[in-house]
Amino acid sequence: MQALVLLLWTGALLGHGSSQNTAGSQEEGSPAPDTTGMPVEEEDPFFKVPVNKLAAAISNFGYDLYRARSSMSPAANVLLSPLSVATALSALSLGAEQRTESTIHRALYYDLISNPDIHGTYKELLASVTAPQKNFKSASRIVFERKLRIKSSFVAPLEKSYGTRPRILIGNPRLDLQEMNSWVQTQMKGKIARSTREVPSGISILLLGVAYFKGQWVTKFDSKKTSLADFHLDEERTVRVPMMSDPKAILRYGLDSDLNCQIAQLPLTGSMSIIFFLPQKVTQNLTMIEESLTSEFIHDIDRELKTIQAVLTIPKLKLNDESEVTKSLQEIKLQSLFDSPDFSKITGKAIKLTQVEHRAGFEWNEDGAGSTSNPGLQPTRLTFPLDYHLNQPFIFVLRDTDTGALLFIGKILDPRGT
């Protein structure tokens, strides 16, 4: 298999192990300072578009959040839509004074981009990634403690840029949960199960991020070829799961020799794609792959992968997640929001972040737009047939091709569910 290397790159070239948003580290239009005498690399034109640069920043936050979350759940599936959490944090920053605003903006990598209208650009980004043809739904909400008096000067820009109004708890855990569930059902069109967990007492600020995606492949799978097959949990244990297959799949492929993994990209309708990271060995730790994930690395992969024909098998997937990401956020530069933040643009009372919840649903099956691949795609001719079987633990990234935004990321150790 390793003889079929279609793509070679080095860790140094793509910045393995770094979550620094290098694409946004300079002012727009200004060249990077040359302090080494080495040639200075031009900024990729893709990242010069304000929406794309903002998408890269909050996606890098997303990879940070995913790493923190995954390290806390080393033996479990992880499903995360970081955009929904980033949106709630970005919206909350509208009510923060300078010190607290800077804390949030650094976590979201806003300090590395020059954009006088971050929130206006965020509105544009949300409109783009949640357009009807994308099949992606995302919503965020800020919930405050009961009887809190909120300044109208906070509510107006919140509605303008993020299309949401804050919610004030009434203090009855059952009724507060009922109202929250109703909001989620309305936003997600009933696609996410209702929560049964009561809203805890002692909430000061609660952030809620929800997202749902059901992918539609550009080329659909033949349901007659779907059958039960082995998925290797490790070297000793296997489980039987419904596995879709296509003996003549057209996909984009590369082998990363540093990460020792095969990378494949499958297109979805609505200018979306899923990138899979499949280790060469079933026992390989996924941490090295996770540490390499940045917006710039994924963008470079998107440019470098080669179109090929392969024998493809992929498990049908339907996952749901309802979890707290509070501890994960505390791990990535945001502890001060839970201790002594300054949200005096919201209210005159001292308030702080106490809980961040994430609810998500994600699925793909055989559904697709067409039964044959795009005739304009000419795969690279291979000396030997290539197999790409997602029959062992893998990582996937759902990316919006138009903006580069990270919409979902998953660590699949067992496709039967979380």
UniProtKB/TrEMBL annotation:
Family annotation (InterPro entries): PEDF_serpin_dom, Serpin_CS, Serpin_dom, Serpin_fam, Serpin_sf, Serpin_sf_1, Serpin_sf_2
Region annotation Disordered: where it falls in the sequence: 18-42
Signal peptide: 1-19
Ranges that cross the membrane: none
An example molecular function term from Gene Ontology annotations: serine-type endopeptidase inhibitor activity
CDD domains noted in UniProt: serpinF1_PEDF
Keyword DNA-binding: no
Gene Ontology annotations of biological process type: negative regulation of angiogenesis; positive regulation of neurogenesis
Composition bias, Polar residues: 18-28
Gene Ontology annotations for the cellular component aspect, listed alphabetically: extracellular space
Compartments it resides in: Secreted
Database matches in PROSITE patterns: SERPIN
Ranges for domain Serpin: 63-415
Alphabetical keyword list: Glycoprotein, Secreted, Signal
Family under the similarity heading: Belongs to the serpin family.
Identification of the protein by name: Pigment epithelium-derived factor
Organism per entry: Orycteropus afer afer
Gene behind the chain: SERPINF1
